[in-house]
Amino acid sequence: MMKNYIKASLIATATFLSFGNGMAQSPGTHGIEVHGGIREYIGDMGSSLMFARAPKYQGGGLAFTYYISPSIDAVANISFGEVGFSQNIDSFVKERDIVWRSFRAQTGDFTLGARYKLNNNVILSEDSKFAPYLYGGLTGYYVHSTIKWGPHPYTAANRPDQWGNEHLVQNSITDMGAAVQGGLGFKLYLTEALALNWSYTLTYTFNDRWDGANEADPNPDKPLVHKLYRSNDAWGFHAIGLSYALGEGMGSGPKKMKDSDEDGVPNKYDKCKDTDPKYRKFVDNVGCPADSDGDGVLDADDECPDVKGTLEMNGCPDSDGDGVADKNDACPKEKGLQNLKGCPDADNDGISDKEDRCPNNAGTAALKGCPDGDADGVADIDDKCPAKPGSKDFEGCPDSDGDGVFDNTDKCPDKAGTAQSKGCPVIAPAIVQKAKLAATGINFETGNAKILAASNKNLDQLVDIMSEFPEVVAEIEGHTDNQGDASANKKLSQDRADAVKAYLVGKGINADRLKAIGYGQDVPVADNKTDAGRKKNRRVEFKLNY
Fold first, then answer.
1. Strands 514-520 and 539-545
2. Closest to 177 (Cα-Cα) out of 214, 230, 226, 135
């Protein structure tokens, strides 16, 4: 029987190829397939699915396919072949040892179903040479099954019973019914029309008797009982074969329908079959030139096909109405100038406000839109000497007095000095000493910050020094001894330093040149254990600086 199936499959394949060669000029809307392979059983007796047991039954088949859409093909399928199984059992029926049973059936089925193709331009390209699919359908089937029970066939000859037979019981059944069929497979295209085809299908019958394993009485005088028991019977089919596409318009992969204007929409669905070449890549699902954003500008002409725009902007929007399409507008929310990529220029210096460091003061491009009043190459906003041309290295300032200290850091820009004295003349030691001595003669009423009148002469000396050197600043320090509460001493020293500052300010000295600090008892200059030491610690110091 196996040789007959192989012979039939070879004859069918040869006929198929001959027919295919005669039809090679018109591949496409439908196709035929021939295939052969291995059939496997699953049911109450066990399973040989997926080669679980050594397969020994073959089958073949023929299929017809019809293209419905890029994802779906309708399929009519006929297959035929044998399926069988054997099983060791342990039972005793009417004093007969039954340790083995088997069946062998000739099967045929006709299925109407559909395939879901993965090369549908969503998962894989429709032109893919590798074309996998899923399959399902409704089936009508025919089975003629021969069923045997008894001792194992290899030992029966050595175990005759008391009646002289081999304990062998044999019966047969012919059955027709409904089933469902499902599976998967793929095509591998060798040419535009010819492809290798592999598939696996499982046929599940709504029946459980043709394998003889539904507990029917094995007595040959009694018919098999038609009833469901445990699980319905099914068979699987591993198949490999050839497929050939027929009809119009295919390509290098699965079938393609005729498309006269080559816009990707088959003539069958194309309402604009003569689309101009310019618009063929921009059509809707019925093959007509598309306007995806509905702005009246066709996608092929629309520079912004996904955003609604205007005809004047070639289909792009212009949110601020400045004549520059948003996609080219560096300032799409602000009305601007076309020559500045749609950005405004408030000071009209030719530099857009977006890039202008000084948007409200006309400047130059070299200084990013800022002016340079003294023309020294340093923008006024960065120039510490905007009215005097200076050096870029010194924040736009010159060295007016030529002492090597530039005006931006020179406390005395019009008087030559030294770097150590911040560009000012060095304060003579005699002046420093004079200020120190004058400060030692400043006294206060006991326990408060009221300056004694006798101290005014010393204070006036300090006024004279500050007036003679107008660039000098001074730090007025107040100190106390350690008698009493430390926090009270701190406050008293601060009040006394403030009193000295107030006197000098009252005599015309700018308050910004004076800094008053009270240190309390924290910085003694003598031992607080003696009256003489405590007296020295109660003092005011006057330190000159720049």
1. unpaired
2. 226
Domains, the chain: 2-89+102-146+176-246 (2.40.160.20), 429-545 (3.30.1330.60)
What's the whole-model pTM score?
0.42
CA-nearest of 22, 199, 201, 198 to 107 is: 201
The Cα–Cα gap between 213 and 87 comes to 10
Q: What is the pLDDT of residues 109-123, one digit of tens each?
A: 999 999 999 998 889
pLDDT tens digits, 330-376: 999 999 999 999 999 999 999 999 999 999 999 999 999 999 999 99
SS (H, E, C) 362-412: CCECCCCCECCCCCCCCCCCCCCCCCCCCEHHHCCECCCCCCCCCCCCCCC
pLDDT tens track for 11-67: 444 444 333 333 333 335 789 999 999 999 888 777 888 887 776 788 999 999 999
Residues with Cβ < 8 Å from 117, sequence gap 6 or more? Answer: 70, 71, 72, 73, 131, 132, 133, 254
Tokens 């002492």 correspond to what residue?
403
**Helix/strand/coil (H/E/C) assignment for every residue in 463-483:** HHHHHHCCCCEEEEEEECCCC
